[in-house]
Amino acid sequence: MKKILVAEDSSVIQNLTKRILGNQNYEIEAVKNGQQVIKKMETKDFDLILMDINMPIMDGIECTKQIRSMPDNVKSQIPIIAITGNAKNYSLGDFNKMGINDFLPKPLNFDSLVETVKKYLGDDN
Amino acid sequence: MSSALPNKEIVLEPSGLTEQILHYSFQNSHLLVLSINTDGEITFCNRGLLKSLNKSPVQLLGKSVFDIFEFDIDDGDGFFTGDSSRSYEARVIRQSWPALLIRFDTILQKSSGEYYGLTLVGENITEKVSVAKALEKSNAQLKEIFDNSNDLIQVFNSVGVLTFVNEAWKTRLGYNDRDLKKLRLKDIIDPDVLKQTGKKLRELERGILPERFETVLLSKYGKKIYVTGTVNCTLRPNAPTEFRAVFFDISERIRAERAQSLYYKIANLTIRSSNLESLYRNLLNVLQEVLDVKNFTVALKTDDTLEFPFKIREDSIEDPSSDDLINSLLAEYTFERDKPLIVYDDGIRKIAETRKIELLGSVPKIWMGVLIQFEKTVIGVISIHSNDEQQSFNFKDLELLDFISSQVSLAIERKWNEAKINSQGARIKAIFESSSHQIWSLNKNLEFTSLNQNYSDAINQYYGLEPSLGMRLDKVKSKAFKSDAKTNWVSKFNRVFNGETINFQNSLKDLQGFKIWRDVFISPIFLPDGSIEEISVIANDITEKKQSEVALQESEEKFRNIFESFQDIYFRCDLKGQIVMVSPSVEEVLGQPADSLLGKPITDFFKSEAYDHNLLRRLYKDEKISNFDATAISASGEEIQFLCNIRLVNQGKKTIGIEGVARDITQLMDTNNELIVAKELAERSLKIKERFLANMSHEIRTPMNGIIGMIDLVASTKLNKEQLEYIKTIKKSSETLLNILNDILDLSKIEAGKMELRKEPVNLAKSIEKLYDLYSQEAHRNNANLYYHIDENIPELAMLDETRLLQVLSNLTSNAIKFSDGKGHINISVRLKERKRNKFIFRAAIKDAGIGIAKENLQRLFNTFSQIDNSQKKTYAGTGLGLAISKELVKSMNGDIGVVSTPGFGSTFWFTFEGGVVKEADLKAEINAEEVAITKHFIDHKPKILLVDDNLVNRKVASQILIKAGCTVDLVDSGMKAINKIKDKKYDLIFMDIQMPGMDGIETTARIRALGTTELPPIVAMTAYSMEEDRSRFLKQGLDDYLAKPIKAISLIEKVKDWISFEAKSVQTEILDEQSKDLIINQNTLNQLFKYGGEDLIRSVLEEFDEETNGFIKECKEMFKNNDFEGIRSHLHTIKGNAGTFGIERLSKCAEQVEKKLKEKNYIHVKKDLRKVERFFGEFQKNYKSIINS
């Protein structure tokens, strides 16, 4: 079972992604900010991160930066999909430059959430 | 053995006298006597000795005795040891056969205290010894005889130790020598007879000899051996008494005797046992009394397989499956052999081997099976087997078993016969009970001796009482059973008791006053001696038949009445055409009395152009001819027009005549002709009206397009507030007008039968989502909430005309919104009503909580041009055509439409419609249509657009909009010109009007394609609303896309942007659109969520959102106190995103606006803004619960 780490400030979105992706047979863990992401990754490997950009303590952009500079090649290459309420202000190119592979604008579209995750993790779960 | 003479010491004086006397006395004795002196020399021998030795005295006297005899002592010294009690045995030396053996007693001779001689007195014992030897020999022979004897011989003592048993005993009881050492009497006597046997033995000791000694021995394997024989005993002082028993095995005889009684028992059992199962068990019990049966099996053959209805295993079996296998193997074997079988363990192994069956585990020592036969056919096998020893059963037992099997067969046969008899009895009973007849019998006292249920029921119905056996009919007390009826019955019974059989019909009035008719048969029951003790009565209720007879009489009378007062002419003629019957009415019409026509040929006065052979042929073929015209000549010579119906009159299979009715239609014809003229006129005028309407609508629509287009353009110019208000009003009015036009057009099209459904695979759920998108905002503007529910059974796809379906749904939904009077919910639901082989029947309902419709208005509702409240002031806009159109459309979808309503509480409009099952071919067609995908063009210049439209206004509107949006536009007014333009110039997009005089848009497009120009721009059809359903046709005919007229600025620009990637200059028309597009909760969004987790997911995320947002708002208020605007902004950002995700649009929009303000550091009215957010949140809270609960 592929493992997804959800970094999301709002427990509503945490649970929503947990339930929708859980139903698609992914194993989901959720944390509340970037710092917790880094900590979690020290002890466990994931196949994908859903990263809210706007988080307290450490935001998604800073968190991504730190992940990409991790010495462990496997960890540093993990696909990161951003979730953002400010999608209008960025293009995919901007995100790519930050080290983010893809993004999902808020309001979240459930279909594209599932599709995008499947794009990176495959459908053979 | 004691000696003949006692050894004595005789004191003899050597005087010689005494010795002489002694010698003399012995001289003639038959004893053998000799004397010796102390040196052993023979001093005397008597005659007997000499004779025995065949010697003379000279040969013996003076000789040493030891030379003559060989003594059983070592030397002669022993003679004089003073032991006078000794005797000696001596053999004569060198004596020929038979050797002489003498036993001597001695007499010592003493003189003056000195021994001087010895006299030996002997006896010839040669013979005695040989007898003893013979005896010894015969003892050994006897033992051999014992051992070879079949008798069971045992020697035992009163302590119970067995000292001897013969071989036969060992074999029979199964013990070996080692066992014997430990064996005691009590071990080998059957415990049941042990006490009795002990008693007998004690009696024996006391000398009471029984005639026979009978007891029961027990073998090593516990098998009983019945014995009889003799026992004698030897009493020995100071030692246990010894018993010698010679037994004779009588087990077989006992068994035979037992078997005898057994056979009786078994035969009895067969009769007594109530079912086969208990019979088997009883048989086994009996069998066990005589045989040591631990394993008993009954196998019966049913349908070629052996089944085991009864099986008893009292052995502990190691392996039941192996036991079963062996049993079915042997039963099958016996069955096939068709002979009883007795087989031992090695035999069983052999059978298994030949049948190639591997036997694991142990095999019975002996197995015995017999056949069960039924009506000369073998139907099964009964078997017993023993795992202990082969001797458990023998051939005698086979006989017994065979007898048992014959009894089983008998039992089976008896059961079968019983069943047969039962069923026969049941049949007779069934006949007695089941017929519809009432049956009863009476004895001479008129007491019931039998009666069936029908009679009982009938009497109950007639008289209100239950007849019972023994009750006297003449004593029956009931209001309905009158005394004269009683007397009547009794007199009838008496006649029958006198031997008569009578039949009559009897009527009575039951308790309810209904008249009942019965057909009654009473017969005497003759006993063999001819006497009559009872009579039987059978009655049948013929009330209905009677009634119909009466009815027939009545109807005949009625018919006569009708016949006589008939207006038309009824006639009947025979096959020759001669009139045999004619109704009196003929006189009135033709002026001839009916009687005068009888016997005349009908052709004399009935003339029909059709009345020829052809007509008759048709009549014979079809048996009747309806509505043909005929002419008759009246008495006054007048021609009268008739309309005739004739048919053949059949009696049984034979045709006996022709009958018919003729109606004078002279007047009717006249009226009819007038009517036809009137109708044609009316139809003509209706058609004119329709055409007029259609034409007018079309004609009006063209300028309407101009008006609407221009309104958009005007709105894009700078206007002051007042002007904007006016423009808004114009736009609204023009749109209403357009809707009316469209309705009229639809209706005229429908009425002209020109409306055809275009069915495509449609996702019904998506259609409802579309409907929701179309009307949710309008509903909201009317303070109503729109909900929808799509039944789970709805198929994913069905063949439907989505446009027309949406038209009906839209009509009903917009009505519901209109009439819901700004309150409550509107629920749209679709469910699958029925699934047939190749089609679905759906039912849609739109329920509002509005003003409702009064009952008297419901009828008119679906009529053309009717709106209910036309008497009152018109608050509700619309032509009132919507429902009429919907009705027609629903009819075309093979459905019904209706409404249920309670004034003041709302209405539910419903309709059903049919959708085809989607076939693969349909899907392929659909995919092809979908494949018309838009490929966007990227250009680096202003889009160059060619607009083809014959209508000047349209050209103007469209071109102005496009130019304002930043395009360059060329205009042409015909297809031909368009082709020429394309030859010259390269365009990015072409808008093509379809309805043009001369060359229409489709043909033009075809010709353009035929030019073969490379990089041909996309061609977008512009079609009027009425042509909307032709969209797919356009696409198939070479057009790339389509745009509906009237042209609206937004849709036109969007269409350009669909095909060409360019930044359009904004055309300000939004101001004309209604505000407040957002919904409290967009159900379509939730619907998306539904597929990922159903209601549960929706409920849980909404509840969580409720909780979290509630917390955020509280925190925001706190942060406001601390002027933490960034904190508030961050929370609002989350609320905005989350609310948006769940389609909580108004809250999301509000949060967004406030967030934006805070981001711009605009901190005025924050408190008020937060309150606004809170209010929208409250609105959500109120709303979502009702969504979840619905």
Task: Outline the structure in words.
The complex is a heterodimer of chains A (about 120) and B (about 1200). Chain A has helices at about 10-25, 35-45, 60-70, 75, 90-100, 110-120, and strands at about 5, 25-30, 50, 80-85, 100-105. By secondary structure, chain A is an alpha/beta fold. In chain A, strands 2-1-3-4-5 form a 5-stranded parallel sheet, sandwiched between helices. The longest helix of chain A is centred in the N-terminal third of the chain and has 13 residues, at about 10-25. Chain A is globular. Chain B is α+β, with helices and mostly antiparallel strands and about 1200 residues long. Chain B folds into 8 domains: about 10-130, PAS domain (Beta-Lactamase), CATH 3.30.450.20; about 150-250, Beta-Lactamase; about 265-420, Beta-Lactamase; about 435-545, 2-Layer Sandwich (Beta-Lactamase); about 575-665, PAS domain (Beta-Lactamase); about 755-920, Histidine kinase-like ATPase, C-terminal domain (Heat Shock Protein 90); about 935-1070, Response regulator (Rossmann fold); about 1085-1190, Up-down Bundle (Four Helix Bundle (Hemerythrin (Met), subunit A)). Helices cover about 45% and strands about 25% of the residues of chain B. Chain B is built from 36 helices and 42 strands. In chain B, strand 6 and strand 7 (about 115-125) form a beta hairpin. Mean pLDDT of chain B is about 80; it is low at about 1-5, about 865-875 and about 925-935. The interface of A and B includes residues 9, 16, 56 and 110 of A.
